[in-house]
Amino acid sequence: MAQATRTFAGLDIGTTKISCIIADHTSEGIRVVGVGTAPSEGLRRGAVVELEKVVACIERAVEEAERMAGVTVKGVYAGIAGDHIRSINSRGVVAVSRKDNEIAQADVDRVVEAAKAIAIPMDREIIHVIPQEFIVDDQDGIQNPVGMSGVRLEAEVHIITGAVTSAKNICRAIQRAGLKVYDLVLEPLASSLAVLDDDEKKLGVVLLDIGGGTTDLAIHLDGSIRHTHIVPFGGTNVTSDIAIGLRTPIDKAEAIKLQHGAALASMVSAESMLLVPGVGGRGDREISRHTLASMIEPRMEEIFQLANREVRKQHFAEMLGGGVVLTGGASLLPGISELAEQVFEMPVRLGSPRGVGGLSENVADPRHATGVGLVLQGAQTEGGTASLFTDHSAQAPRGRSFDIRSWFANLF
For residue 268, what is the DSSP state? Predict the structure, then answer.
């Protein structure tokens, strides 16, 4: 008997754009059936600063996706990012409860809860608790300890926290747009699900999601999330540099960046010219593309250096055989992979969403990595697995280690 079709919607609330992706989940896989985007207003570095503008943008993006898909969206899996995100690794230890020393799911639940017992400020809330590995007595590297024998069970987990007010305002904006929030997912984790291969996650890889307001970093190793970090710079900073350097309006600077920009000045000929609109009634003038690239390259290099410093500070640099994967809107700049290779001194590739059918060509773009990842996570969560949070949580009950729904209930 064929599996019933389920429909999922992912909502990527970014600093420069808001996108909604609707997908059907059938026995044949995930099919994208609707895509909607709207320019983002009322957000700064992933945080809501003008609620009504954000609500209006969400409504426009969702309505466009609904028209294309021919369905009505009732709730979404939403992304969260911003420079308020923090992460830490923690360890929990419990004694196995059964007399025959067989580890049960209840023991796994207890050890994850023990690992969550860390002191966090009152203005912050845990968003994700991601198991990395389990240790039974002295045997480490265990993915799923249920059914094994042991006296002591330990868990290494990665805990991601966010500002309560930032998360609450995102949820409020979505609810004001007439939608339910089924889950809130850290955006680089969703992007990882859409663009990374399992082999890369096992071998070790850095995902850099270069958005408008922030650049989100996620390090995978041995099939698990090992570290996440937010660099508080992104594509809007590049646009601002161009606007100031060329004395042109912000919207014109954005258009110039998209049409003529490059991340590596050495790749651009000094003879190629472009017209720059003046500001305040001043006349247009000509500059070379090389001059433009010379303004973009230092900012992109700074972003990569900050990310590389974080990778090396966590002592992962020598273990990342999969190199670096770039995604997000700003990763489309010509020469960006070559610049990243110079800074990180490891292989770099551009990551586009994969693993979906239907309107796959409409989302085969790094700008849609987070949105596709959100619908993939929705389908897998509803299906009883949570593979976004590594393989060894796959057999856990839904919401075992990341049940943020109860948190939503307490927020309002």
Answer: S
> Is beta strand 205-210 parallel, antiparallel or unpaired with respect to 324-327?
parallel
Mean pLDDT on 346-354:
93
CA 212, CA 230: separation in Å to the nearest integer? 12
| Unique residue bearing structure tokens 């799923």 | 144
pTM reported for the whole predicted model: 0.87
pLDDT at 390 over 80: no
Mean pLDDT, rounded, of the chain = 88
SS3 content of the chain, % helix, strand, coil (to 5): 40, 30, 30
* The pair of three-digit structure tokens given for residue 408, joined into one six-digit string: 């939503």
Torsion of the alpha carbons at 126, 311, 198 and 109, rounded to the nearest 10: -30
Domains and CATH numbers, the chain: 86-163 (3.30.1490.110)
Backbone angles phi, psi at 385, to 5 degrees: -120, 160
User: What SS3 class is residue 389?
Assistant: helix
What is the dihedral sign for C-alpha 221, 224, 226, 229? positive
pLDDT at 383: 59
Going by C-alpha positions, the residue among 366, 371, 352 that lies closest to residue 77 is 371
Tell me how far CA of residue 240 lies from CA of 75, 211, 253, in angstroms: 35, 14, 8
**Which of 164, 168, 181, 187 shows the shortest CA–CA distance to 84?**
164
DSSP string of 155-219, one letter each residue: EEEEEEEEEHHHHHHHHHHHHHTT-EEEEEEEHHHHHHHHH--HHHHHH-EEEEEE-SS-EEEEE
